[in-house]
Amino acid sequence: MARKTAESKGKAPVRKRAMKETAKEKEDPKVIAKKIENMAKEIVADIKKGNEPTFHTQMRGRGNVKFNEEQGLLELGDKMTSRNFLNIGHARRYMQTMLVSAKAHDYLKERKTASIREIYYELKHTLGETKENTFEDQTESDSCIVDLEHSIDSIREKLNLHANPKGTLYGDITLRDKVHNNDTFNCAKLGRGGWSVMSRIEPEEIEMKDCNAKYVLVIETAAMYERLVEEGFAKKNKAILVGTGGQAARGSRRLIHRLHVEKKLPVYVFTDGDPYGWYIYSVVKQGSMALAAHSGLLAVPDAKYIGMTLEDVEDYGLQNVTERMKDGDIKRAKEMMAYPWFQNKPWQKELKKALQQKIRIEQQALANKSLDFVATKYLPEKIKKQDFLP
Amino acid sequence: MTDGILRAEDLAKDFKEHSVAEFFRKNKQMLGLVGKIRTFTTIIHEFVTNSLDACEEAGILPDIEIQIKELGNEYYEIAVKDNGPGLTRETVGKAFGQLLAGTKFHRLIQMRGQQGIGAAGIVMLSQITTGKTSQIITGTGKGNPISLEITIDPKLNQPKITNLKELNTKFRGTAIKARFKELKYIRSDQAPLEYLRRTAIANPHAKITITEPTGEKITFERSIKSLPKKPIQMKPHPKGITVDELVTLAKATDSRKTNSFLRNDFDRMGDKAVREIQENISFDLNKDPKQMGWDEAEEIVKAFRKINFIAPRTDGLRPIGEDRIRKSLETIITPEFMSVITRKPTVYSGGFPFQIEAAVAYGGKAGKMSESPKKKDDDDEAIVKKVELMRFANLSPLLFDGGGCATTKAVQSVDWKRYGIKDMDNAPITVFLNMISVHIPYTSAGKQAIADEEEIMEELRLALMECGRKTGRYIAGKKKEQEKMMKRQMFFKYIPEVAFALGKITKTDEESLKKRLQKIVLDKLKLEEKEEEDKRRSTEFKAGKEAAIRKLEEGSEDEISPEEEEEPEEEVSD
User: Fold this and answer.
1) Fold for the domain defined by B322-474
2) What letter would DSSP give residue A355?
3) How far apart (Å, rounded) are the C-alpha atoms in residues B351 and B175?
4) Which of A39, A52, A83, A98 to mutate to test the interface with B (most CBs of B within 10 A)?
5) Cβ-based contacts of B500 with chain A (< 8 Å)
6) pLDDT in tens, A6-19
């Protein structure tokens, strides 16, 4: 079997700066509360002058999302948008945003955290004598949270708000939960389930202490994550395993980001070889369209794609365990070919190959060789040879 | 009858004996006596018209009471009582017992119900459907009223009066009670109640009461206490005359020479015109008009067509008048807003003066009720309003054949959206249109639809557009007002929450924030209002300018202006 090295596949664009911990990352509840106060004070000043109350936030959506080539991140442009209370189209949303701001401010002051569903219920009530509620459903309060994060240029986790947790961590790293009795634990000693990644893992709550690992392996499927735990992969290879269970949630992304930035660990992403898997990689690496403003806190531009690739299919003789791409997959793959961060030879080649053969390959197809094949042969070999897609 | 030769004598005899009854049966359609509902309406129409005419003639404010009783299946008794001048023993027979005895034929005067078969026709109808007599009580106010029963001898077309009695009461007016079969009383757009409602609208000086078979009594109150001006008889205009009419007029004239007959009995006929006619015909106009034959009359009518006459006088027309229409709509429709216009008289087909009156009423009881097609919705409002068109010809409601009527076409041709009335069909609007003329051009013998002559359509449209403009402006203003209110309410609803939130974050007094926010909202709404007002003014100024220009252009096309009208071409003295 002919093996090619990363070098022979063409070079990915080289970034000048590696990702570092920024001031933004260290902002604590006091700073965030202050930001909210300043925002509110400006509005109050306007009201006292008899001016129309407005609320400024960063403009979102395609029109203001850019790919920063140098940093390898999706980021938000500098376009701002303002909501005016006296605009009939904005009035209700304005009122809601103020309520969410006040409540988040409360949480920060009182050192409490709440889920986005809890804040919705906390704020929901009938307006005066009317039949109208402050919020009719959670999507309304969720939108206001997004408005607020973008207004104070931070993430909801820093507003002491969180969504449902998703994702697991396994490996030789010691964490300290500052909020909960200062519990200190090693994530390789929590049984096979590992540590369940919380939605909020800000440094002032979860401290990362000793870490004895060489890299982070991000795994798409729960089944593959379990396979690798069972095979003792983490210990043998000094790896930290993060199972995302599909698309990575904010908490998992923040965790991967912190492991990369604080512990200087390289990040390898291991997904199915299909558009959905590529997109998981893409989000971990450069951030998502919806959270473009927060890529600096969530993304890992230096992350590498380990597999599955169509070359793996040839290299490991997996042709008989591939699956046909569906129409939706083909459409999606075509779109992805145009993404700026896939504009490099190796990825174009990979996507073209997938489109020509119209096939996809799952992580677990490796079991076709043997159950431990992935842990003993596939991953160690690829990592050793640095056989990645950029 | 055998296959042999028909003898003229037999035919004549036959014709005479059956003339009236036959005339009836054969012309039921033309007489409006077709269909169970339409016949009912026609009966009411004939009686009520009679009463209105009689009252007005005598200078009395009409007070008409109608009572309808259901006697059996499709069998009714109808009683109509008025407070008119009453009839004498001598005139009562002629009024109710002789067909075609009216005074309405061959008179060029604006009249209600040109179609009239008259009250006698109705007596006849009662007689041929039930075999019963009609009961009449009438009094002139002087002496005792009389009571009698009447039928018509169809052979002689003569009244047959029975049971004639003098009553020992005081009564001025006429009351008739008659029975009919093959009728049906319902409430609908074409039924008696709607007919009376519309009659009341066109006759605001009348009080009309109806008691329906169910016993429900509905009164259309008098909304104005003065009688309308009487229309005046007009001489025919040469352009509007037919050969037949010319022959009839020639026979009836007092003039002894045809040229003076023309001068005296026609509108706009001067010496110059008579000279021109003479040049265009083959016989001498000094001839006795009573000797005028058909061919000669035809020559004269042809000559009329060649000569340029001044348009006919229009001062004999008597519209209802804007004030009176306004008052009656206020009483009967109680709209939120209405726009009324009586256009200046003008002429169609070169020879017939006419005048259009229009009103658009919005809100209140305007528009007609209709069941909502989307009834399954939980909305309790299953009834929706639809636009209603009330058509009148010389103050008489037209209830039938609406589709072919010039008024309907005119309403449809107007672009109501331009006036901000987005969905005219489903608007709570009543459109009132009245055409006044000495000669209404009906599309058919049924006389329920006005022909769409070009000039009539134009006048209808102009009248509707003006009313539409005004109504649209009102609706737009109202909508704005509502929007403003809703806006204010919405802002005020959110202000306490915003004040609370901001107060909490910044530790500012919530109440003072609330007050300040309210003031900001009110100031902003006031400013918006002012801006809208300015915008409206400037567009209206523009529209006004355009209208002025249009008027100038229209004016130059007009051949006669009202001032010129007063002066005939040449003064003629006999």
Assistant:
1) Ribosomal Protein S5; domain 2 (3.30.230)
2) H
3) 40
4) A98
5) 99, 102
6) 443 434 444 545 56
pLDDT at B350: 72
Is cis: bond before A198, omega within 30 of 0? no
- Encoding tokens for residue B549? 């220009």
Tokens 């000793």 identify what position?
Answer: A210
Helix/strand/coil for B417: helix
Strand pairing category for B368-371 and B383-386: antiparallel
β-bridge partners, B386: B368
Q: For residues A230 and B241, which has the higher predicted lDDT (pLDDT)?
A: A230
Tokens of B452: 């769409």
| Closest A-chain CA to B522 | A86
Specify which of A341-345, B340-344, B487-491 reaches the highest per-range mean pLDDT.
B340-344
Q: What is the pLDDT of residue B5?
A: 54
- The nearest CA of chain B is from the CA of A105 a distance in Å of 7
- Does residue B337 contact residue B363 with C-beta atoms inside 8 Å? yes
Is A52 touching B (CB cutoff 8 A)? Answer: yes
Gap between the Cα atoms of A248 and B202, Å rounded: 79
pLDDT of residue A232: 94
3-class state of residue B536 by DSSP? helix
Q: Quote the tokens at residue B35.
A: 């269909």
Lowest mean pLDDT, pick from A164-168, B24-28, B514-518, B523-527: B24-28
Fold of B238-306: Helicase, Ruva Protein; domain 3 (1.10.8)
> Region B128-143: what's the mean pLDDT?
92
Q: For the structural domain made of B8-220, what CATH number should be given?
A: 3.30.565.10
Note the residue count of chain B: 574
pLDDT digits (tens, 9 = 90+) for B164-215: 999 999 999 999 999 999 999 999 989 999 999 999 999 999 999 999 999 9
pLDDT digits (tens, 9 = 90+) for B314-353: 888 889 999 999 999 998 999 999 999 999 988 888 788 8
Q: What is the DSSP string of B127-147?
A: HHHH-PPEEEEEEESSS--EE
Question: From the CB of residue A297, how many other CB atoms can be counted at a distance below 10 Å?
Answer: 23
pLDDT at B543 over 80: no
Q: Do A95 and B491 touch (CB under 8 A)?
A: no
Q: Does A106 touch chain B (CB under 8 A)?
A: yes
Amino acid at B30: M
Sign of CA dihedral B298, B299, B303, B305: positive
From chain B, pick out residues whose CB is under 8 angstroms from the CB of A131. Answer: none
Whether residue A37 and residue B506 make contact (CB cut-off 8 A), yes or no, is: yes
Tokens 């994550």 belong to which residue? A225
Q: What is the C-alpha to C-alpha distance for residues A135 and A150, in angstroms, rounded to an integer?
A: 20
> Distance between CA atoms of A245 and A280, rounded to whole angstroms?
10
Query: What is the token pair recorded at B388?
Result: 């209603």
- Which residue reads 């079969």 in tokens? B181
On whether any CB of chain B is under 8 Å from the CB of A89, the answer is: no
Q: What three-state secondary structure class fits A64?
A: helix
According to the model, what pLDDT value does residue B100 have?
62
**Mean of all residue pLDDT scores within chain B:** 84
Domain ranges, ordered by start, for chain B: 8-220, 238-306, 322-474, 485-562
- Which residue segments constitute the domains of chain A, with CATH numbers given? 24-162 (1.10.10.10), 165-384 (3.40.1360.10)
pTM: 0.60
